[in-house]
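Supplementary Methods S3. Input chains for the assembly prediction are listed below.
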Amino acid sequence: MSKPFDQTDHAELKVLEQELSQQLRQYREAGLKLDLTRGKPGPEQLSLSDELDGILQGNYRDGSGTDLRNYGGLDGIPEAKALFAEMMGVDASEILVGGNSSLTLMYFAVLFALYQGVAGSDSAWIKQGDSVRFLAPVPGYDRHFSICQQLGIEMIPVDLGDAGPDMDEVEKLVARDPMIKGIWCVPRFSNPSGCVYSSATIKRLAQLPKIAGPHFRVFCDNAYAVHTLQADAPELDNVMASFKQAETADALYLFGSTSKITFAGAGVSFAAMTDNNLRSFKQQLLISQIGPDKINQLRHVRLLRDMAGIKRHMQGHAALLKPRFDIVLKHLSDGLGGLAIANWTEPKGGYFVSFDTRPGLAQKVVELAGSAGVVLTPAGATYPYGKDPRDSNIRLAPSFPSLEEIDKAMQVFVCCVKLATVQQLLA
Amino acid sequence: MSKPFDQTDHAELKVLEQELSQQLRQYREAGLKLDLTRGKPGPEQLSLSDELDGILQGNYRDGSGTDLRNYGGLDGIPEAKALFAEMMGVDASEILVGGNSSLTLMYFAVLFALYQGVAGSDSAWIKQGDSVRFLAPVPGYDRHFSICQQLGIEMIPVDLGDAGPDMDEVEKLVARDPMIKGIWCVPRFSNPSGCVYSSATIKRLAQLPKIAGPHFRVFCDNAYAVHTLQADAPELDNVMASFKQAETADALYLFGSTSKITFAGAGVSFAAMTDNNLRSFKQQLLISQIGPDKINQLRHVRLLRDMAGIKRHMQGHAALLKPRFDIVLKHLSDGLGGLAIANWTEPKGGYFVSFDTRPGLAQKVVELAGSAGVVLTPAGATYPYGKDPRDSNIRLAPSFPSLEEIDKAMQVFVCCVKLATVQQLLA
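Predicted C-alpha cells for the full assembly:
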C-alpha cells in the first residue's frame, strides 16, 4: 500500500494500525538497543587518525623552533594557524587555534560580548537594554541554543530553508529590534537540515550588520566546512571575503574544528575574526587560560599536512558515511515515499538527516521508537528551549551505528512514523 | 662591607653608590638577556615527560573499554580521576579531570558562582548586592587576581604570613561584610612566598563558611601539591577532610594540574569538590564543552601510573630545580645578608622566591635590572590591580633559566637592590 494516507479510508487505516502495532510489538520483543541520537563519528572514522599519538616522534618544536611543551602561545602555533586559516578562507593573522572544543570558543565569544563588550565595556550587550536577543534559525543545533539559554539571551526562531535562514524575516526582525545582537549560523551542511547557505544568503547576511548596528555579531559555526558526502556537494561562498566586501567584517565570528575530521574528543578548534576582533578576544581569553595544547596542534599539522591532505582525509570519512546516509534515505523513500505524511532532507554533506512528521507527531514517534529500543534525539531538541512549536522535527544521526544497526533502526523508525500518523488520522 | 646600611655613614654610602653604579654600567655593557619572570619549567624538566606522545601505542581505550577518541566524558576518565583524586586527597567521585588548564576551571567556577549561582539562580552572587568582593592574600598569584578583575569582583588584600593568610583579619572582614564571597588560597608552596598553610590555618579556613554564609567559597589552588624541593618540606593537611570535619565541605573548591609535573602547556587539570557542587558545576560546564581531551588524560595515567610514580617523577624535577633555588639563595645571602635592607623566603617547594625590598624600591629595582637586560616579574604583579601598597615585593622565578643564567642574573639583581637602597638612603 503506497497511496497517500489522506486518501486512505477509515477501514483501511484501521487495518494498517493493526499491522503496524503488531510489527512494533515484534520489534519490542527483539530487545533492540540502537542509538541514532548524536552526531558522533563511528569507530572506523576515528581510526583514520590513529597515527596522531606518536606522530611527533619526540620532536616537540614547531617550525619556528618554539618548544611546544611549555606555556604560552594563546592563539596557537603558526603551522596550525596557516592550515586552518586556509580551510576557513581567512588570513593566518585572522585565526586563533585553540583546544579541543569550538563550542568553548563560541561560549567565550558570546560571554565576552555580553559582559565585556565587543568594543570596550560600554558596548557590553548587557548594558544596552533589559533583554538581549538572538535569532535562532530552526531547526538548529541544541548546543548553540543552550549557550544562549544559560546566559539569559532570549532566542527568536526564524525558519531555515534550503538556501539558509529566511532573510526577509531576519532583516525585518533586526530592523525593528536593536536588542537583537546575534544570529547563529551553520552555513554549510547545516545541523540538522544539511542545507548550504546560498550566495544570496551570505551576501544578505553580510549586509545585516548595517541594519543591526555596530555590536551585532554573526556567529558562524562552520563545523562541516569540508564534510562532503558526494562530489557534487554545493560549495559555500567565502564568508569572510563576503563580509569584507560589504565592509562589515567586524560583525563576523567564524568557528570550526577538527572534531569531525580527526578525533571528536581530542581535536583542535579555531575561531576566525578580523584583527580588531581577535585582539580584543585574545585579551579577554587570556584571563582564563595561558594557551591551548600546542602539541596536539602540531600532531594535527603533521597528520593533515595541507588542504589536499584534509580533502583526502575527508574522502575517507565520506566513504564510511555515505553508505550510512544511503540506508537512511532508502528506508525513508521505500517506507514513506508517496504517503504524503513526512518530509526529509537529502544532504550532500554533514552529519544529519532532518525529518519532519505531520505536525504534532515528533514526540510521539520518538516515544514509540524508544519503546522498541531505538533512541532518537529528543523531539524539540532542534528548537530553542527544546520546544518545536509544530512538534514535527526529528534529527537523524546515522554516523555512529554500524550499517546493520542503522538498517534495523530505520525499519523501526519508519514503522513508528506510520503508526503515529495512522493513529493521529484515526483519532 | 657587610654592616647594616642604616649604620653606614653618608660618606661610605656615597662611595658605595659609585661602586655599584660602576658595576651596573658594566652589566649593561655586557648586553645580557636574562629572564626571571614567569614560573615556567625548564627544558630539562619538560624532557622528563617526553614519553607522553606515543605512550598509548595505538590503544585509545581506557580500562572500562571506552573509546577515548570520541566525544563525551565531561568529568574525565576513571583512571585519571582515581589518580588525581588521591593526589588531591579526595574521593574519586569528588573530582573532575579537565583539559590543559586549571586556570580555566577556576575561571568557570567563579563565573558560574557569580552569574548562575552555587545553589540555584537565586544564590548567584551578582543578585545578592551591588558589589561582589573576594579576599586576596598577598603577595599572591596575578592570574587569580585577573579573573576577579575581569569579572568585576573587588579584591581586598590580606597579609599572607609563614603559616598562611592572617586569619584574624580574614575572620574579621568576612564577619562584617556579607558580600565577601570568596578567598584565593595556594595552600602549599604558595605563589610566590612558598609558605605552607599550617594545620591551624586550614582548620580556621574550614570554619570560615560558618561566619561567611552559605554561598561563600574557598578557592584553593593546590598548584604545587607535590612540588617539594627537599625531603623535609612541610606537609599540608588534607584540606577536603578538614572541611568535611567542619561540615563546610560545600564551601571548598580545590584545583590542581599537571602543568608543572608533565608538560606546562599540555597537561591535565582537575577540580575537586563535594558531590553536590560537582553535580551543579558539571551541569553548567556542559554548556560550553562536551568533554576534555580524554586521550591526553590516558597518556598521563600511563606515564605517571600512581602516587609513587608521581613522587618519583617529582624527584626528577627537584633534582633540576633545587640547584637553581640554591644559587638564588646563595646570592641573596652572600650579597645582602646582614645588610638589613631586604627579606626573602627560603621555600622548600614550589616555583618562587618572594623578595621584599625596603618600602618604595621594588619598582626601582625592577627598572634597574631591566636596564641591564635582566627581566623580572613587574613590581606589583603579586598584588590585586598590580598595586603593591608598599612597593616592596618582587617575585623571583628561577625554574626556566640555566644555572649560569641564574648566576649572572642574580649578580645583577643583588647589585640593583643595593644600589636602589643606597640611593634611597642618600636621597
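The mean pLDDT of chain A is 97. The two ends of chain A are 21 Å apart (CA to CA).
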